[in-house]
Design brief:
238 residues
Length: 238
């Protein structure tokens, strides 16, 4: 896959900045993070332009230990899957073992953070997206779907608490909200254990956003985002 030169340069600069700082515990963490920036982020971004995986999340690694451990775990797990396909090493692969250690650290920090309440919804939403990816890569689709529901519920509660004007959406980057929108569709289509009352709240919110968001489909990304809004609104009735 050909990667834009400016993306490589931007990620290389970010890796250099973080590697020279005190955040990484060693060269191994830095190496996996570099692999995430140069390979994994591109795979996660897909065909549509987004800053979530190659800019927002790597920048959060510098200041958020939760995100750092989850990103390193995701990179190590992806490396493990590639090696398993090439050599048939399976879960005995050292990349897989390292991924589990980092994933465990991320989950512990997530639990500790949530015990004090959701004080940083932006960080929590990014963590939820990364956990969803980690569970999916390991083949735990039920757990991944539960993470999708948890992330959407978190965003929904945050929106209700800040209701009054949609200017509050600017506190969380649009691309993070789009990522959570994709997770909502995952939960709706695979395994949805949310209550009928919450579905009614989600229906009202989706309808409100549809009325508020101007119907300007000037590029493929806007078409995709608006299509997601319509699908989420319709699937709530299912």
């Amino acid at each position: 896959m050909l990667v834009p030169k400016n993306l490589i340069q931007g990620n290389s600069l970010l890796v250099h900045q973080i590697h020279t700082g005190p955040n990484f515990s060693g060269e191994e963490e830095a190496r996996y993070f570099r692999y995430y920036c140069e390979d994994v982020a591109i795979q996660l971004s897909g065909a549509l332009e987004t800053t979530l995986w190659d800019r927002i999340i790597p920048q959060a690694v510098e200041s958020e230990p939760i995100i750092r451990h989850a990103v390193v775990a995701l990179a190590a797990l992806n490396k493990s899957r590639i090696d398993a396909g090439l050599r048939g090493t399976g879960r005995s692969n050292p990349h897989h073992q390292y991924a589990l250690v980092q994933y465990g650290k991320a989950l512990k920090k997530i639990r500790d953070a949530l015990n004090d309440g959701v004080k940083d919804p932006r960080r929590s939403l990014m963590a939820c997206l990364l956990v969803f990816c980690l569970e999916s890569l390991q083949g735990y689709q039920t757990s991944a779907s539960n993470q999708a529901s948890a992330g959407v519920n978190l965003l929904q509660r945050w929106c209700i608490e800040n209701r009054g004007t949609y200017a509050h959406y600017h506190a969380i980057e649009e691309d993070i909200c789009h990522g959570l929108s994709s997770l909502d569709l995952q939960a709706l289509l695979f395994l949805d254990t949310r209550s009928p009352r919450l579905h009614r709240d989600l229906q009202e919110t989706a309808a409100e956003v549809l009325r508020w968001r101007p119907l300007i489909l000037e590029n493929l990304k806007n078409c995709y985002v608006y299509w997601q809004l319509i699908m989420r609104h319709c699937y709530q009735y299912v």
